[in-house]
Amino acid sequence: MKAVRFFGHKDVRVVNDIEKPVPKGDEVLLKIGGAGVCHSDLHIIDEGTVVGTVFTLGHENAGWIEEIGENVEGYKKGDAVLVYGPWGCGHCKPCQQSKENYCDHQSEQAYGGGLGLDGGMADYMLVPSSRLLVPIFDLDPVIAAPLTDAALTPYSAIKRSLPKLMPDEYVVVIGVGGLGHVALQILREISGAAIIACDVTEDKLAFAKELGAAFAINSKDADAAEQILKITGIKKAKVVLDFVGATSTIDLGTKVVSLDGDLTIVGLGGGHYQYSMNGLPFGVSMTNPYWGSRTELMEVVGLARQKKIHIEIEKHKLDDANEVYERMRQGKIKGRAVLIP
Ligand code: NAD
Ligand code: ZN
Ligand code: ZN
After folding, report:
1. Widest pairwise Cα distance in the chain
2. How far is the CA of 78 from the centre of ligand 1 (A)?
3. pLDDT tens digits, residue range 72-85?
C-alpha cells in the first residue's frame, strides 16, 4: 500500500511498498478516509521532535473499519470512526479517566500513530485497540479527520477556561490556522466572551471575522498589544489562547492577559518565557495543554454533528504531501489540509 513516510530530518517520501497490516487480538485495521496535515508534523520533520525511527506520518485520522482482531467486539466492517491520537498505556489512572493525553507512561513509550508509530497518511492504518476509536455515525471520515486534533485540542483548552469566558469578558486567539479557526467557532458556540483574533495576514484576519471574531488584530504590528488593550480597556483579556507558541506571541499574551486570567499556550513554536515577578499579572494560570481526552473527542463529534463547527478543508492526494507541507510552512493553508488516499 501507499504511505507518506518520515525518514529523518526534512526527509519525507511517498512510498508504495508498505505491506497492508493484518489486525490481531485487540487491533483494528482502518481504511483511511482522510488524514489531516498538522503543523506538529512540521516540528517533527523540520526540527526533529521525534527522532530515530522511520514511520508513516499522519496523527489526525478517520476512516472505515476494514478488519478487526479476534478480541474486538462492538465494531464491524464499514463503521465510520475517528482515531483518538494520543495513545496511552490504557491502564494508569489518567488513561482510565480517558485522559490518555496525560498517560503516566508518556515519557517511556512512542505515543501515537504518526508520532513515532505508523499513522494514517496511507491506504490503511493499524490501531492497537478499539478503545482508541470514536464512532462518527453520519459524518464523513474525509471531513471529520481534523476533529481528532484541530478541533479536540482547542476544545479541551477552551473547556478548562470556560468558567472565565463570560459575556462581559474578552478572549484573545493568536493564530487562525488549523487549530485556531476551529477554536474561534468553539468559542462562538460554547462561550459568551467577545473574541479578539490575531494572525499575520489580512486574509486570515478576514477569515477570523467570518468565524465569529468581533475584532481582528495583526500581531505583526509593533503596537498589537496596545491595540488589544484599547479594545478591552483596563480589565484586559480574561483568557489568551496562543496557537503559535513563539517567543513573540507568548510575550504578546503576557501583555494582554488580565489579573486572575488564563494564558494557555497550545502552539509548539519553540518560544521561551522567563518568569519574573512583575512579568505577569497576579493570579494568572499559564498552561501548556496537550491534545484532549477520549470523552472530549466524543463531545467534539457532538459539536460537528450539530453543525456548530465546520472545518474548512483543502483536499489533497497522498502523493502531494510534500507540496502541502511546503504550503503550510508558508502559512498558505486556509483551515486544514487533508490527505485522501
Ligand atoms: P497552522 O500552520 O495551521 O496555523 C498556524 C497559524 O498561525 C497560521 O494561520 C499562521 O499565519 C499563524 N501565525 C504564525 N505566526 C504568527 C504570529 N506571530 N502571530 C499570529 N499568528 C501567527 O498550524 P496548526 O496546525 O493550527 O498548529 C498550531 C500550533 O499548535 C503548532 O505549533 C502545532 O504544533 C501546535 N499543536 C499543539 C497541540 C497540542 O496538543 N499542544 C496540538 C496540535 C497542534
Ligand atoms: Zn497535531
Ligand atoms: Zn496510561
Report:
1. 62
2. 33
3. 999 999 999 999 99
